[in-house]
Amino acid sequence: MEKQSISIKKVTILAGAFCAYMIGSGFSTGQEVLQFFSVYGVAKGIISTLVYAAITIWLIYTLYGTGQKMQFSNPYDVFEYYCGKYIGKFYTWYSVVLLYGIYVVMLAGAGATINQYFGIPAYIGGYGVAILALLTALLGVEKLINIIGVIGPIKIVFMIVVGVSAFITMASQPNLLSENSALIQTVGFQQASGNWLWSGILYAFLGLVFGNAFFVMNGQTAKNLREARLGGVIGAIALAGAVILLIIAENVYLDVIEGQQVPTLAIANHISPALGLIFALIIVLCIYSAVSSILQVVTRNFAVDKTKKFNILATVLTVVGMFGGMVLPFDKMVNLLYVIAAYSGIVLTGFMIYKEFINKNAFPFRKSNDENKDVDVAV
User: Fold this and answer.
1) Which residues form a coiled coil (predicted)?
2) From CA 1, how far away is CA 141, in angstroms rounded?
3) Which of 26, 161, 184, 231 pairs as cysteine with 11 (C-beta 3.0–4.6 A)?
4) The predicted structure's pLDDT at residue 333
5) 113 — pLDDT class (breaks 50, 70, 90)
6) Beta-carbon neighbour count of residue 359 at 10 Å?
7) In this predicted structure, what is the pLDDT of residue 147?
8) 158/160 Cα distance (integer angstroms)
9) Which residues of 162-198 are buried (b: 16+ CB within 10 A; e: fewer)?
């Protein structure tokens, strides 16, 4: 078999697109990492992250590969491919509703962030991000991935800056990390789960349901399986590294983040007011890239991108989201959606394992763009 060639540029873009999609408002503000990992202390948080990374790497490797090999006309077809017609349709609609709900609350988060730091009315900030996201989604999936694929590494670089600053602080205060690691569990931060290991597992399955269709769509743009899988795996490893750096930073700067809604912004301001300004902009950039991706993925369930139907639906969904995002409670809705998504992801993974390892011929998929021919491609 001839060895598949890869493009380093394309692999980097695929990895960056994964990071850009996953680092939305929850991650970029530091709240996700705080509640899922940091609150349990450094040692438990890092071990939990490694468990999360192991699960995520397999999921991404599989889904990027499935997307590249199957070339679904609709990325949501991946649910029918793994779960069969009826359960697949349920997951499709469940995923659409879930993603759109997250899209709406992310717009609310964008407005709140812009208002908090820049003093601009929340509705103007939310509307601005919504319109930019719409314009990006209308460019089509290839352009979208190229754009957010550049944004992803920028986010990772900032996490590295925060992590390096934490290490410098630790050098002058050797006992700070261990002391704060024990103290952080008593401060009263919200926890995603009562068990640190289960928290990491839930975070992996949350990512699965949140990004399933996008991962498939992302993999489709690669020219071969090797390129798709490599881009996905590198992205997953980079994200796990960013999580670990943020766990260390949030423990080191415990006194800085205590009582703060946006821990990363508080840390950035503590390091340097100029860095705080830059990170406020990065948070908005994080939300913009995630919102653009979600809008593209949700609309793709109803229409092919860059068509008149797609453009109309994307515009309508944007307008509804703009107004909905100004009235819905950001934090409560996100928490509710994330918990439900994580548990539903466990069930979905069971179907994936069954098809990948037990019965590759289960749920034969009928491709709508191939003269309704039954196909079952092993990934």
Assistant:
1) none
2) 31
3) 231
4) 58
5) confident
6) 10
7) 81
8) 5
9) bbebbeebbeeeeebbeebbeebeeeebeebbeebee
Q: What is the pLDDT of residue 244?
A: 95
- Contact at 8 Å (CB) between 372 and 366? yes
In this structure, which amino acid lies at residue 272? Answer: S
Residue with tokens 């077809």: 77
Instruction: Please report the pLDDT score of residue 72 as a whole number.
Output: 92
Of 35, 240, 232, 246, the residue nearest 158 (C-alpha): 246
What number of other Cβ atoms are within 10 A of residue 73's Cβ? 12
CATH superfamily of 8-358: Amino acid/polyamine transporter I (1.20.1740.10)
Closest CA to 245 of 42, 31, 21: 42
Identify the band that residue 368 occupies on the pLDDT scale cut at 50, 70 and 90: low
- For CA atoms 55, 58, 60, 66, the dihedral sign is negative
Phi, psi of 242 (to 5 degrees): -65, -40
Tokens of 49: 């992250």
Between CA 257 and CA 255 the distance in angstroms is 6
Exposure b/e, 48-63, CB count within 10 A at least 16 = b: bbebbbebbbbbbbbb
Token pair 């709140």 is found at: 112
**In the chain, domain spans:** 8-358
Instruction: Indicate the pTM of the whole model.
Output: 0.84
Mean pLDDT of 44-60: 97
- Calculate the alpha carbon distances from 290 to 68, 109, 315, 319 in Å: 22, 12, 17, 17
Amino acid letter, 294: I
Q: Kindly give, in sequence order, each residue whose CB lies less than 8 Å from that of residue 289, ignoring residues fewer than 6 positions away.
A: 20, 21, 23, 24, 147, 148, 151, 152
